Amino acid sequence: MSFLPEAEPRLSGNALKILEMRYLIHEGDKYEKPAQLFWRVAQTIAQAEAFYGSDDSAIQVWAETFYKHMCSMYFLPNSPTLMNAGRPLGQLSACFVLPVEDSMEGIFSAVGNAALVHKSGGGTGFDFSQLRPKNALVKSTGGVASGPVAFLKVFNAATEAVKQGGVRRGANMGILRVDHPDIREFIHCKTDNMDITNFNLSIAITDDFMTALQEKKEISLIHYGKEYEKVAAEELWQEIIQSAWGNGEPGIVFIDRMNEHNPVEHIGRIKATNPCGEQPLLDNESCNLGSINLALMVKSRDGHTEVDYDLLAEVIQTGVRFLDDVIDVNKYPLPQIREASLLTRKIGLGVMGFADMLFQLKIAYNSPEAVKVAEEIMTFIQAIAQSTSAELAKERGCFPAWKGSRFEKEGRLMRNATLTTVAPTGSISMISGCSSGIEPAFALAYVKTVLDGTQLLEVNPYFAAHAHREGFYNSSLMSALSQTGRVGDLVDVPEEAKAIFVTAQEISPEAHIAIQAAFQKHIDNAVSKTINFANNASEEEINHAYMLAYQNGCKGLTVYRDGSRDVQVYTAGTKKPTETGKEAQKSFNNPDRFTTRPRPAVTKGEIEKFSIGCGSLFVMSSRDEIGLAEVFCETGKFGGCASQSEATGRLISYCLRLGRSPEEIEVIAGNIIEQLRGIRCPACIRRPGITVTSCPDAISRALLRQFPNLQKNMHANTAAPTQFDQLPLLHSSGADEVVTAQTAGIMQSALPVSNPCPECGQELIPGSGCYTCSNCGYSKCG
């Protein structure tokens, strides 16, 4: 097929960087161009048209249509499709659910299958409820069972060992029914945030449990019909709330509600979801996702901005056909996954840029008008998607499991068992230059640190354009905004603008859930949504949010309380360094203190291995009776900067032994970590699958593991400069019509980094059950 040189994608500098790091094919220093990537994807997906009688000219038309919609940023498929279409791997789906059977063979078969899925770029969900509880008798061996949590850790370790095709780390959802005998252990198994790091966890909440909760009754904890104990539903619910308040885990999924809307219950019940909870699937099913950029589905008429429903309809029709074609050209990682996926042909067409659309419509996210827009938009998308799938059914036939499905009973032809989903859109929303999913803006401005250390202020283009139009744009205002990320407390901002440009933590749980529920009413699958709470939020507020989600018809919910994870450092307005840390810092003012404590003859330590750009780096940390005393660094046999690593280790060891108490050692280590983390080496950055940015960055991570609570006691060194005029502005070609010299991108605040990205050190932003870096596109959830 001929290439389309006249239709080039319009991308920001940040989008280009993310594409280069994660999506573009490269050999040495030569990279595929973004236009070539989109054409590669479009051409590959359009080949499915040949399966239904299309000739070369018709295939060319669809390839061009797919290409233009992607280049225009109207629609983008999930990351595996962008990464793998037209390449040997060819695995294009993001979401998988794998069964975990109650036998050693079944468990480790699932571990192996998950590794293959992760290697191909997918994320997996598991229901561990079939596994017998801890200490239950195993008749075949006479021993006792390890229980779901023990095997959950096995799955987690296997995921850690597999880097997804060299591009994406594996992501998982672990689910356990609320009536499983080991539910308490499951609720609390991630209390240590350094444990089970490759899993999101959710409790499968049943209708019976919610009834018992409301009636203040007990429930039975059972497994295969055997009752192990009775427990008050309210007591168990409170443990879930306390744990979610503590660190955001576990989330909840209303499993009976998911099955109530399961159109193919005749072939199986839903027991689990994909990693972020928005895609309920049967055992061995997969699903491919794609999202419409609502930020671009607007038009101006008579001086007013309104939704462009004609354009939206066109994009919906193209998106449904694109995703249905993906099913046929996909290279599935396992034959049973291919069989299950083709049986139901599920797709997940969703949206991103909803917050940006509201900004343009001058509608506050936390208003009744926003709820109305959400319902209208999703009602329209669902209706057009259904009519498109019905037309495809006439052309190509219904999905094979249609016989006996809800659609057959209703007399409706349908090509796909499910059509719509709202997923996290971390990377693809950054490529598109829009807000993520249906989440509100996390902040209106932030400071980005680029490779040479230069700091650039990035301001929400819609707010900047509004400020220019209304005449209140000025440098002092932008300086203040760079410090807070939001306008609610800024005196120079008119009240109308404060109402429109609200950010995540300024929005009440009621308003968050109202938006989620409005979308969920018209979605086949589910909605991935996170409620961001301020650090001082109470457990009762978390409880209120979960109850609201149930009462308003949502299928699940994730919450995140700012600063609640103990790996976080100081978050403005929520936490302060401990007094112990302050006193330890003061003690260094005495120059007589700068002599090192003697090294003992014997120390105890541990070794951590890191993959680096030129081989391996081994970091050994050892302790004396006071605390951490030495760090040794050695590169593997394939080379590396051996002398530099040794020198770094010696300097760190010298500094650590200046400390005369655990508190002093902690302060020293904190300062060292701040100096080392995020340093970038081209060899690490360019090599696929490397999760550290340099040898110093790897050493900082090894140090951090020695101090689990360290980051509570120190400031990040990325605070914004105090004067806006000192910061150059980023430019984005995609935002030129909105405001000159401003850029798209609204994912972080300009505050100290509290949850650093492991690849670039910038802020990881919670949203849609996921954690995403707006700087490099790293996603903790795959």
Would you write up a description of this structure?
The protein is α+β, with helices and mostly antiparallel strands. The protein has 26 helices and 29 strands. The strands form 10 sheets. Strands 3, 4, 5, 10, 11, 14, 17, 20, 23 and 24 form a 10-stranded mixed sheet that branches. The chain is globular. About 9% of the residues have low confidence.
How many helices?
26
Mean pLDDT: 85
State the end-to-end distance.
Answer: 32 Å
Number of strands: 29
Q: Spans with pLDDT under 50 lasting ≥5 residues?
A: 566-592, 712-752
Judging from the principal axes of the Cα atoms, what is the shape?
globular
Most strands sheet: 10 strands, mixed
Strand content range: 15-25%
Q: What is the radius of gyration?
A: 26 Å
| Helix percentage range | 25-40%
SS-derived structural category: alpha+beta
Quick gist of this model?
With 782 residues, the protein is an alpha+beta fold. 38% of the residues lie in helices and 17% in strands.
Secondary structure blueprint with pairings:
Layout: H1 13-22, E1 26-27, E2 30-31, H2 34-46, H3 56-71, E3 75-77, H4 79-84, E4 95-97, H5 104-119, E5 123-127, E6 137-138, E7 143-144, H6 148-161, E8 163-164, E9 168-169, E10 172-177, H7 183-188, E11 199-205, H8 207-214, E12 218-223, E13 226-232, H9 233-247, E14 251-254, H10 255-260, E15 272-273, E16 280-281, E17 286-293, E18 298-301, E19 304-307, H11 309-329, H12 335-344, E20 347-352, H13 354-361, H14 368-396, H15 406-410, H16 426-432, E21 445-449, E22 455-459, H17 461-470, H18 475-484, H19 495-500, H20 509-520, E23 530-533, H21 539-551, E24 556-561, H22 579-587, E25 604-612, E26 615-623, E27 628-635, H23 642-656, H24 662-676, H25 682-686, H26 695-705, E28 764-767, E29 770-773
Parallel strand pairs: 4-5, 5-10, 10-11, 11-14, 17-20, 23-24
Antiparallel strand pairs: 1-2, 3-17, 4-17, 6-7, 8-9, 12-13, 14-24, 15-16, 18-19, 21-22, 25-26, 26-27, 28-29
Helix pairs in contact: 1-16, 2-3, 5-6, 9-21, 11-14, 14-20, 20-21, 22-24, 24-26
